[in-house]
Amino acid sequence: MTPSVRLQEMIRVIRSARTQGEERGIIQKECAEIRAQFRQTDNGERSHSLAKLLYVHMLGYPAHFGQMECVRLIASPRYSEKRIGYLGAMMLLDEKQDASLLITNSIKNDLSHSSQYVQSLALCTLACMGSSEMCRDLAPEIERLLRASTSYIKKKATLCAVHIIRKVPELAELFTPSARSLLSEKNHGVLHGAVVLITELCERNAETLDKFRKAVPELVTIMKGLVTSSYSPEHNVAGISDPFLQVRILRLLRILGHNNDSASDAMNDLLAQVATNTDSSKTAGSAVLYETVLTIMDINSESGLRVLAVNILGRFLLNNDRNIRYISMTSLQKIVQTDHNAVQRHRGTIVDCLKDQDTSVKRRALELSLALVSPVNIRSMMKELLIFLSSCPVELRSQTASGIFNAAERYSPSKRWHIDTILHVLTTAGGDVRDETVPNLIQLITTASELHCYTVHKLYRALVKDISQQSLVQVACWCIGEYGDLLLKGECEEIEPVQVTEDDVLDALETVLQSHMSAPATRGFALTATMKLSTRITDNVDRIRSIVSIYGSCIDLELQQRAVEYNALFKKYDHMRAAVLERMPLMEKNSPGHTNGDSSGEIKEPEPAKTKPVEPILLSEPANQVCDLLDLLGGTDTPVQPSSAPTSTATTTSSADLLDLLGGLEPTPVPAVTVYEKNGVSLKIQCDSQTDTDITVTLIASNSTQNDISNFTLQAAVPKSVQLQMKAPSGNVIAAHGLGQVTQTVLLNNPNKVSLKMRVRVSYSDQGTMLQDTVQIDSFPSPSWNSQPSIGVL
C-alpha cells in the first residue's frame, strides 16, 4: 500500500467514526504511530507521517510534537520533504515559538537555491510566519529577489516584502526603489504585488507618498490598458479584465490623489472612462465601479465626476443583491452632506428601500432618508416615514420616531402640522419614543395658543380610542386638565366638534387611573388633570373630590402625596384652589429658570445668531449619543433634550461693576488655555468672570488645517446640581490657516458649590467627513488662578 493511500485510508477511517469518542481513539492511535516514526533516525516515511499529523492538526487535535520534525525536513535536500516541512512550519509554527528561529538559516540558504520552486517555498513561509527578527535578517535577500529574472519569484518576493514592511516599518526605504521598477512588468501577478507593495509604502510614509505621486501617469496607463484590453481567458472574470488588479490600482490612485490637485487632474479622465465603460450587471464589475466611486469622492475631482459617482451609487440601489444595496447606501450616507443635491435625485429609490425585507438595509435606508429631509420635501418625506413607522421592525421604531421628531422640529412648515405629526407618531409608536417627547410636545402646544381647542379635541378622541400608548395618554391628560373648558364648549373651527359632557371627560380620566396599563407617571398626569378640572367645571366637583380622596391611601408614594396635597386644597385652602390650579403660563424653551433643574447634565445646542442665519444640517449620528455623553457625568437616567440658548446680550457682571466703582479699572484678562487639539482643530477656554456661585467662560475654536471647517458645533454637559446656559456661537465655519475663530460664551451657575466639571462635545465637518470628539474639563482657570486646567480627551 503506497504512503499516499495510507493517508487517504486514515482520513476514511476517521470520517467513518460514529462518535466523538471513537474518533479520539483513532486519532490517539495514529499519533502514537507518528511519534514512533519520528523517533527513528533514518526513515523515508517522515514526510508522510508529518502529512498525516497536519491533517490531525486541521481537525483541532494537538500536534505540537511535530514542530522539530518540520525543522528537520526543511533542512533536507529533497524537494518533497522540504515542501512538507515548510507546509508544517506555516501551520504549526508562529513567531512566538522558539523553534521558528531555528529555520532562519535554512530559509536564507533556500532563498539562494538554484531552483525557483525551492525559493518560492522559503518566500511563502517567510511571508506567512516570519517574525521581526527573521524579517530584519532576511530583508536584503528579499530585496535581491525583487530583481529576479523570473516573474514567478518576483510576485512572491513582492508579497513577502509587504509582510516585512508590516512587521518592521523602518525597512520600508529598502524596498522603495525596487517597487517603482516593478510597475514596468507585464505579468499581472507581479503588477498586483507591486501595487500592494506601493500602497503599503505610501500609507506608512508621507515622503514616500510624494515620491510615488510621480508614478500616477504610469498607473493610469496600466489601468487604461486593463479597461480597453481585449478578451483574455487568463485574467477575465465575468467579462472584466483582471478586476482584482483594477481594484488595487484604483485604491492606490485614491491614496495618491487625496488632497493633491495635480495627481487628481491626471486621473480624472481615467475615472470617467472606468465609470462609463464598466458593466455593473456582474459582481466583478460592481466591485470595480464601487472602488471607482470611492476614489472619485476621496480625491479633488471635478463636480461632474462626483455627480457621476452618485449616479452609480443610485444604480446600485436598484441591484437585486442586498449587499450591493447596503454598501451603496453606506457610501451615500458619507457624502450626503457634501453632495446633498446629487443624492436628492435618488430620494425615491432610497425611500423604496425602506420596504426591503432585510433589516440592515432598512436601517441604512432610514438613516439616509432622514438625512435627505429638507424644508422643500418635508411634507412628502414625512408622509413616507410615517408609513414606514407603522410597519417597521420593533428595533427600528425608536430610531424612526426620534428622527421624525428632529426633522419636524427643524423644518416644520406650521405648528399645526408639527403637532399633527408628533401626535401621529405617538398614536403609532407611543411606547417607543424617548421620555423627553412628552415635555417637548407640551411646550409646543402651550406656545400655539390658537390651536389649543383643536389640540384638546384631537387628543381627547385619541385618549378615548386607545390608552395603551403611555406618552400619548400623558400629553392628552395634561391638555384636558389645562384646556378642559375648551373641550366642554364643543366649539372648534379646525376640527368637527364633538359634544362632550363633564361625565365623559371624568370617565376617560378615571379609566386611565384604574387601568393596569397605566404607568405611575401616567396616573400622576391623570390625577393632576382631574384636580385641575375642578376649577373648569361646575356640576361634578364632588365627584372629583371623591376620586382624589381615594388615592390618598394609594400604595404608590408619589400618587399618594399628590392626592393628599390636593385633598388639602379642597379642605384647608379651598379659597386658594382656583389660583393654584389656573392655566400654566407660556413655557419658554430652555429659559434660565428651568435650565438644568431636574435634568442631569442637560446639553444645550444653541440656535445660530439672528445676524448670521445658518441653515441647520440634520446629522446622521444616532440621537442617543447625546445621552452617552451625559452618562459619563454620573450615569443618570434623566432624558436629555437638545435646545436653543437665548441670544440676549450678556449683562455686566458684578465683579466688573465693583471695578467701575474704583475708578474705571478693568479686570485683568486671564490667558486662554488649550483644552483640545486634534486634527488641526484646537479649542481654548478663557475665564471672563467668576463669583462664589457663577462663572462665565468663553470657548475659542481655531483651525490650522489647509481646509475650512464647516458645521462646527459645541455641546456641553455639567453635573445635575449645576445650571448651564450657552450663548449663541459667533458662527459655524472656521477659516483655514488660523485666519478665523469661532467663539461661544458659557454661563455656569453653581449654587451648591460642588466640584465643577464639564464635558464638551466637539462636532465638525472636514472635507465632507463628520468628525466628533469629547473633552473633559475638571477645573477652570480663574482671574485669581492662572494655571492649566485639568483636562482629558476621551
Structure explained in plain terms:
- This protein is α+β, with helices and mostly antiparallel strands.
- Among the domains are: 168 residues; 105 residues, Gamma-adaptin ear (GAE) domain (Immunoglobulin-like), CATH 2.60.40.1230.
- Helices cover 54% and strands 9% of the residues.
- The strands form three sheets. It has a five-stranded antiparallel beta sheet, with no helix packed on it. Strands 6-9-10-11 form a four-stranded antiparallel beta sheet, with no helix packed on it. The protein has a two-stranded antiparallel sheet with strand order 1-2.
- β1 and β2 form a beta hairpin.
- The longest helix is centred in the N-terminal third of the chain and has 20 residues.
- About 10% of the residues have low confidence.
Q: In angstroms, what is the radius of gyration?
A: 36 Å
Average pLDDT metric: 81
Biggest beta sheet summary: 5 strands, antiparallel
Strand order of the largest sheet: 3-4-5-8-7
Poorly predicted sequence stretches spanning 5 or more consecutive residues: 591-667, 784-789
Tell me, briefly, the overall form: elongated
Extended strand count: 11
Percentage of residues in DSSP E strands: 5-15%
Cα end-to-end separation: 67 Å
What share of the residues lie within helices? Answer: 40-55%
Question: Helices and strands: which structural class?
Answer: alpha+beta
Secondary structure tally, helices:
34
Question: What is this entry, summarized?
Answer:
Helix content is 54%, strand content 9%.
